[in-house]
């Protein structure tokens, strides 16, 4: 059973795990950081005790569950460059965005997922399911700050990604998703605006997750005639993906406030630095000169 495995793996008792789970929603340090648009983002950082159990679940349970190929964010061996490169040769790009993505995924979504995929949880009993849900949720929702939230979102969105991918394929469109950002590209004109409506209808009628909401203010269409960007990567008219000055500024900004970054953002920062180095090795030296060797090493190793 899951609880016994976790107890043995972490070196604690099942009773201790149950105790942490029962008070998990109160075991977060909450603060806010400024988003690029000037609004605040709420971060909920778990206590050391809760975070240790979440990390065990991430490594031994969550990362072993199916995730769709279209989901590019927070995946081992995948970077924002991999996400962007799939759209580089297309002429037209559509970006759509989910509002309050992590908190929109609820404990009920987790329970529905487990019931739908019982074969994946055949060794679990009712207590395992209850404790799992309590350990990864705060007030019955995923939270920005828990190390488990990004991977769980990919797991819960598997059916959605499958449906959107199938729909996109029928229309000759390439689809990828990086966390709450959905990207669609094609070289056929006058397709994406009609396709946008189909995606909006699909998301509105999703059974799992049941509460996703598109932020229509962030929906954006672009083409080779203007600037096309995917997760900070510039798609050039030469059909290749390039790092731009905006991404370098983003990296510097994240390093500057590294103490305020949640685990998902820390992991993203490490990937961004690794990606940037692939284009410009001197960029790392410039970062070290500006912020110090110790800070940059921390930024490159998000678990330290």
Quaternary: single chain
User: Structural class of the helix and strand makeup?
Assistant: alpha+beta
What summary fits the major beta sheet? 4 strands, antiparallel
Q: Provide the β-strand percentage band.
A: 5-15%
- Placed side by side, the strands forming the largest sheet appear as 4-5-3-6
Assign a percent range to the helix content: 40-55%
Number of helices: 14
Reading the helices and strands in chain order gives HHEEHHEHHHHHEEHEEEEHHHH
Q: Averaging pLDDT over every residue, what do you get? A: 91
| Shape estimate | globular
| Spatial gap, N to C terminus | 30 Å
Radius of gyration, whole Å: 20 Å
Low-pLDDT stretches? none
Structure description:
With 304 residues, the protein is of the alpha+beta class. Strands 4-5-3-6 form a four-stranded antiparallel sheet, covered by helices on one side. A hairpin with a 2-residue loop joins strand 4 and strand 5. Helix 11 packs across helix 12, helix 12 packs across helix 13 and helix 13 crosses helix 14. The mean pLDDT is 91.
Précis, in short:
By secondary structure, the protein is an alpha+beta fold. The protein has helices at 2-10, 14-22, 48-60, 80-85, 101-104, 107-116, 126-136, 149-156, 158-170, 192-204, 245-256, 263-279, 281-291, 293-300, and strands at residues 28-34, 40-46, 92-97, 174-178, 181-186, 220-223, 229-230, 233-235, 241-243.
Search tags:
4-stranded antiparallel beta sheet; 304 residues; 3-stranded antiparallel beta sheet
């Amino acid at each position: 059973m899951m609880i016994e495995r976790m107890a043995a793996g972490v070196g604690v008792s099942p009773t201790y795990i149950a105790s942490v789970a029962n008070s998990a929603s109160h075991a977060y340090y909450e603060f806010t950081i400024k988003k690029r648009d000037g609004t605040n983002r709420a971060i909920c950082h778990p206590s050391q005790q809760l975070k240790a159990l979440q990390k065990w679940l991430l490594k031994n349970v969550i990362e072993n569950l199916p995730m769709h190929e279209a989901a590019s964010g927070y995946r081992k061996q995948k970077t924002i460059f991999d996400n962007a490169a799939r759209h580089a040769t297309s002429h037209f790009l559509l970006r759509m965005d989910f509002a309050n993505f992590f908190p929109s995924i609820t404990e009920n979504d987790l329970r529905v997922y487990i019931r739908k995929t019982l074969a994946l949880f055949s060794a679990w009993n009712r207590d395992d399911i209850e404790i799992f849900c309590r350990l990864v949720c705060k007030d019955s929702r995923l939270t920005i700050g828990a190390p488990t939230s990004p991977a769980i979102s990919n797991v819960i969105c598997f059916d959605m990604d499958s449906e959107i991918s199938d729909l996109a394929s029928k229309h000759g469109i390439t689809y990828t998703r990086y966390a709450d950002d959905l990207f669609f590209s094609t070289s056929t004109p006058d397709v994406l605006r009609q396709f946008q409506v189909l995606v909006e209808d699909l998301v509105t009628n999703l059974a799992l997750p049941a509460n996703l909401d598109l932020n229509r203010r962030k929906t954006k269409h672009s083409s080779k005639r203007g600037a096309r960007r995917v997760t900070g990567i510039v798609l050039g008219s030469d059909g290749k993906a390039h790092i731009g000055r905006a991404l370098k500024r983003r990296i510097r900004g994240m390093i500057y406030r590294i103490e305020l970054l949640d685990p998902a953002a820390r992991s993203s920062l490490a990937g961004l630095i690794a990606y940037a180095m692939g284009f410009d090795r001197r960029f790392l030296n410039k970062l070290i000169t500006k912020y110090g060797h110790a800070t940059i090493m921390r930024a490159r190793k998000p678990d330290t």
